[in-house]
Amino acid sequence: MKLRNELTQKAIARECAAWIKEKVKFKSNVTNENMVGFITFDVISYMPLNGFTTVDLGCERGNNVYNYIQKTEEIQFSRHYLDLFNDLWNDSEKLQDVTDEVIESIIII
After folding, report:
1. Nearest to 102 by CA among 7, 35, 20, 36
2. What is the maximum span of the chain, computed from C-alpha positions, in angstroms?
3. Cβ neighbours for 55, distance < 8 A, ≥ 6 positions apart
4. How far apart are CA 23 and CA 39, in angstroms?
5. Within 13 Å of residue 54, how many CA atoms lie on the same side as its CB?
6. Which of 34, 31, 21 is closest to 92 using CA atoms?
7. For tag attachment on the chain, is the N or C end more exposed, with fewer CB atoms within 10 Å?
8. How many CB atoms lie within 10 A of CB 37?
9. How far apart are CA 69 and CA 52, in angstroms?
10. Predicted TM-score of the model (pTM)
11. 75-99 pLDDT tens trace
């Protein structure tokens, strides 16, 4: 049973790695600068986001006394956030592609 479960986990890891190779890119901040997170859907932006958990997204209550997230429904702000994201995403001095490292860490499982 134990060996069969380990084989399943390895198969899932390989499948996940293949999916990442085909559809995903991971980048890491290589500066000492803090990059405050945000999410934009169409014309709605949410900011600041410190993580991608249900607490950080405001779906559940966490341990913080408060957790303010600003929701903006202005197209000009959404465009600004998307432009900021694209500028950062394409700046190789600030972000380094770490997709291969992520894939390697998944396959090692």
Report:
1. 20
2. 56
3. 61, 62, 64, 67
4. 19
5. 4
6. 31
7. N
8. 13
9. 13
10. 0.73
11. 888 899 999 999 999 999 999 999 9
Which tokens is 109 given?
């499982």
> Hey, how many other C-beta atoms are within 10 angstroms of the C-beta on 38?
19
Q: List phi, psi (to 5°) of 19.
A: -65, -45
Question: At residue 4, does pLDDT exceed 60?
Answer: no
Q: Which residues lie below 8 Å from residue 23, measured CB to CB, with a gap of 6+?
A: none
| Summary count for the chain: helices (H), strands (E) | 3, 5
Tokens representing residue 38 in the block: 């945000």
Residue 104: both structure tokens together: 């390697």
Contact 80, 19 (CB under 8 A): no
Amino acid in position 29: N
Angle at 77 between CA 48 and CA 41, to 5 degrees: 70
In angstroms, the Cα distances linking 50 to 11, 46, 58 are 32, 11, 11
